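Dear support,

We are seeing what looks like truncated structure output for some complexes. This example has two components. We would appreciate it if you could run it in full and send us the complete token output so we can diff it against ours.
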Amino acid sequence: MTAIATAGAHRAGRTAQAGAKRWRRAVTGWSFAAPFTVLFLVFLALPVVASLVMSVTDMRATDLRTPFAVDFVGLGNYQRLFGDDLFLRAALNTVVFVAAGVPLTIVAALAAANALNSGLIRFRALFRVGFYLPVVTSIVAIAVVWRFLLDPEAGLVDDLLARVGVDGPNWLGDTRTSLASITVMAAWRNFGSLMVIFLAALQGIPANLYEAATIDGAGRWQQFRRVTLPLMRPALLFGAVITGIGYLQLFEEPLVMTQGGPLSSTLSVSYHIYNQFGFGNYGYAAAASYVLFVAIVALSVLQFRLLGTRDD
Amino acid sequence: MRNRLIAGAACAALALSVAAGCGRDADEGAQTAKEVGAGKASGEITVWAMGTEGEKLAEFAKGFTADNPQAKVTVTAVPWDAAGQKLTSAIAAKQTPDVSMIGTTMQGGLAKTGALDVTPTDLFAKDTFFPGAWDTTVVDGTSYGVPWYVETRGIYYRTDLAAKAGFPAGPKTWDELTAMAKALQATAGAKWGINLQPGKTGSWQSVLPFGWSNGAELTKDGKYTFDTPQLAEAVGYYQSFFTQKLAPANLPQGALEPAFIRGEIGAFMSGPWHVGILNEQGGKGFAGKYSVAPMPAEKSSTSFIGGSNLAVFKDAKNRDAAWKFLAWLSKPDVQVRWYQTVSDLPAVQSAWTDSALTADPILKVFGEQLKSAKAPPAYPTWDQIAAVFDTEMEKVCVGGEDPAAALKRIQSQADSIGTGV
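Here is the complete output from our reference environment:
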């Protein structure tokens, strides 16, 4: 009886001790994590929560001094968003830009990486720098150069077209070519970083696989399709996701090249949000940001489904 | 774990904000100003100013501190691009300067935040300023600030070409403007009769003067009114220059001035700053080859008045001295000296009798025009409406769309955006 009681007391004492120990460990752990946790809560979680709250109110720039004296409008901002012609136009532009730009960038990067890996051995360093240069160049400088190139009066592109007897369009000033011009420029500007990643992936493919394929009688195209592409799938997935996320947030290019014009043909969702914040429609702009966020998540999930590793 | 934490915090914040009795207070209506104490100004006055004004004001303010040795004026230059952002952050953080320069179209939004101090009527008399300029400071019946400098629009034209075209004194009416543009092209050999902004950012400043000259009113009973026959007629007239190929619809940036100097463009609509640009680019002797005509009249000759105001913040640490500084800047002789320093046109009417301004015939035209010039309504949402207006004008000028239909679209946008008051 006593023995059992003592054993029970012992056990209780031990659990209490263990509890205290766990508590102490938790305190130590959290105090070590505190600097990050506090920074995270104040500078990341709080703004995120604040913007989410903002998106369900009718807050405007004029409410700055009294940010809590605003009306709760529920999903009103979201409803208005999908009735806003300009937002729908911006959404369409962005979808077209992503749908055309992401494949274009990936194909260009893949082609450049393959060329560097096999063909252009001699001046590889030179080409690698050349292809990568647009990535590290300021968008402002790029915009100036491209505006010169695409100028209808004195631009190089239309000048070359005129030499072969084609009357070139006003690339950035025509609603039919403006978005396409921006897409090509964005692809040119961004394919360099993907190329570097793809090049690394290509060099990671064992040479004996190609040897075996050659012995089996596979041609270059077959080797590329059956050996290179499947082995590069993780790199391709990474490239597609990163580029997709970046392209959905298209902003700098139209800002410096066309200001969203002509006739809103290059207005992107991010640009629209930027404008709305500029007009002081904080609630409305916050709602638009969340729509964009959901779109980015959806696109990434889709890409993982399509390109992700399958166990078959 | 973290996700659940964030979600919990979000729910809590949402519930809190709803429960904490969010919701707007009733309007307080017209406000009255506190009096400004007598005597000389003292202490530090912090001022934000943009552009050239920001660079030159510090030096210029020494004239004020000479009279008020106890006071010190500290000027911070703010780039125009960042002005709106900086001011709104300052207001949100309640860390405003004492005084800031404010673009006339920003006035509505800033005043509505309640951050601006009401103009003390004992220091400033409304009728010393151009009426259009004073109106830009008035939001919901109360004035928040004073006009500092102004600008307006007129028609620049080549006198030599216009003489050949049969309009040596420039156009007086709408019909004459069209006829002159046609004749400049047909008989005087200009490639384009006139240059008007074909929509895009800021084009409302060119289109609206035609509307006002045709008797259009932009507001009625506290609502925007774009869908009026007067404005439709004016936009149609504006469009006619593009449909008749009298004005270029796609002039590259920076091409206007060289083309005007070469005589390829016979006339264009712009503000006072173009005098300096033309004289610099045109070289010697070009100053005699062009002149400026007031806005051609239909029902009246009414132009656009722009410029900047100066306002004092409610959170100012040195309010009385700040208003005294603004009173000094509004003195006619100081306004003339400021004109001589940075070429900003005086907002105070009596400054225009000074010989520094009366001597120049082009300035005289602008001075006359300013007396009747109008500004857009000082509503907090004006910038947004203006952006809609600019986009629709582009459709009209470049895309050839129907003016009345474009104005209907602007009206429906304006109705859904509201005035923001």
